[in-house]
Design a protein that fits this description.
8-stranded mixed β-sheet, 4-stranded antiparallel β-sheet
Length: 485
């Protein structure tokens, strides 16, 4: 069967696959090394991973946004490296972190809509560095990354802030995450380096920034934009549970989204201040990223993410600093959240686990050439598959008649509103060929992964009522659902 025929023959698979398929070119069994590395034992760097939920890259100053939403991240970026074309592999929290924390695509780690978590057979970033002697600490505020779904694997301490009755509001949980981080950075253990992961849920909808950020961006733009009606769901207007009385302009809700970014930025600043005061400040790898972006009305999709593979949901910030790295670096090369695991392990000089799907970005951080990634891939919970380079994007949407293909020229059409296949036949042909090869490869990988997953014990448990209520508030659970059942 030819690759072109295979894409059509496997249309049903794209719709109903138990294990959602994916793969990117990347290293297999690789040992992280560095030219000139000393042969004698040496202290490993601390590792700090800060992730901010639903944060679009284009709403940060360092990516060109005009509102002052991110002064602390912008300042940090001036002493770090900014990846200008960074994308999530999976634009929904649970899937995104399954990929980000394993460094593997769904075809390799077993994530699927039917089993949405990290199967226990996967090594995670935390478990790998824990085995290398790291103390591992996390504080998170999104039940999608609850320990019962496998996300706590490898962490000595895993704080699920929504489970704490004393943390009733989002800002209290946000402050608690920062407090966990500052304490961990201050309580350094001499013989154990630290891996610290902090995940802030804001600016995830509903957008309710605390003072003074709730009014920080009430400018002329906040009173402008199309009028929104209250609706069920995420299309045609503002979800009725989140509608604010007397506020029906798109600009108002974007101003609140920006306010939540500013609130998160202030907390990130507190963590960076604590890092600067710590003994390991000059020996710490820092990664600031997002799990996915957010649609703010593009394609009639409001204040949500994950339903499509357009850039508002795919493009994310990625700002990285490593000891000895170049300062103020702007990297135009394509990067993906799959690259975070190999980059951190490379910088820490810890051996890679097998079957990683991304590439280490360390050479670029040290002033060399970035890894060659001419094309990236993305998937979502609905079976969509995207293949894209810096300019062109091909998206395959499953249907009963076979995959429906949409091809965009994002240079001429940044909003991805006009199909470009008729004008760009050669580029469409190349993209389609790569997607066909991608589909064939990931079918083979996912079949092997599914057999492994069937033999592995399940780590799933029952979600707490607190976790259910939090997911309901974030829009993941239908409004009429009873979390007590």
């Amino acid at each position: 069967m030819t690759p072109r025929a295979a894409l059509g023959a496997h249309a049903g698979f794209l719709v109903t696959a138990v294990v959602v398929l994916a793969a990117c070119r990347g290293p297999q069994e690789v040992r992280a090394t560095s030219r000139g590395a000393p042969s004698q034992p040496f202290p490993r760097p601390n590792l700090l991973l800060i992730t901010i939920d639903a944060l679009r890259a284009d709403h940060l100053g360092t990516y060109g946004y005009r509102r002052r939403t991110s002064p602390r991240i912008d300042a940090f970026a001036r002493s770090a490296a900014v990846f200008e074309q960074a994308y999530t592999y999976w634009p929904k929290t649970r899937g995104s972190f399954a990929m980000m924390l394993t460094g593997r695509t769904a075809a390799r780690n077993g994530y699927s809509a039917r089993h949405p978590g990290i199967p226990d057979f996967n090594p995670t970033l935390a478990s790998v560095v824990q085995a290398a002697g790291y103390r591992t600490v996390a504080a998170v505020d999104n039940p999608n990354v609850a320990r019962l779904h496998g996300y706590a694997k490898g962490f000595d301490s895993y704080r699920e802030t929504w489970e704490e009755p004393g943390l009733a509001s989002e800002i209290e949980r946000t402050n608690a995450i920062t407090d966990t981080g500052t304490r961990a950075l201050a309580s350094r253990t001499a013989d154990r380096p630290l891996f610290l992961w902090l995940h802030y849920v804001n600016p995830h909808a509903p957008y309710t920034p605390p003072p003074p950020y709730d009014t920080a961006f009430r400018d002329e733009k906040a009173a402008a934009g199309r009028r929104l009606r209250a609706v069920d769901g995420f299309h045609g207007g503002i979800r009725k549970e989140w509608a604010v009385q007397g506020r029906d302009r798109l600009g108002y809700y974007i101003s609140q989204y920006d306010g939540e970014i500013a609130a998160a930025d202030a907390e990130v600043g507190r963590v960076l201040d604590a890092l600067r005061k710590s003994p390991a400040a000059d020996r710490t790898v820092v990664v600031i990223a997002s799990d996915h972006g957010e649609s703010l009305g593009e394609h009639d999709y409001y204040f949500d993410h994950g339903e499509d593979l357009f850039d508002p949901c795919l493009r994310v910030p990625l700002v990285v600093s490593v000891p000895g790295g170049r300062r103020g670096l702007r990297v135009p090369a394509l990067a993906t959240t799959l690259d975070i695991v190999p980059t951190i392990l490379d910088a820490a000089k810890v051996s890679y686990p097998p079957e990683l799907s991304g590439k280490s970005l360390l050479p670029a951080l040290l002033g060399g050439s970035p890894p060659a990634s001419s094309r990236l891939f993305a998937q979502n919970d609905r079976g969509l598959v995207g293949a894209f380079d810096a300019r062109f994007k091909l998206v395959a949407t499953p249907s009963a008649q076979g995959p429906r293909l949409a091809f965009y020229d994002r240079s001429e059409d940044p909003a991805e509103m006009r199909l470009a296949g008729a004008r760009r036949a050669n580029e469409l042909r190349e993209s389609r060929r790569d997607m066909e090869l991608f589909t064939e490869r990931t079918e083979r990988e996912s079949a092997a992964t599914q057999r492994l997953a069937e033999r592995a014990p399940s780590s799933e448990g029952a979600m707490s009522r607190e976790g259910c209520e939090k997911l309901k508030a974030l829009g993941y659970v239908a409004g009429g659902f009873d979390c007590a059942q």
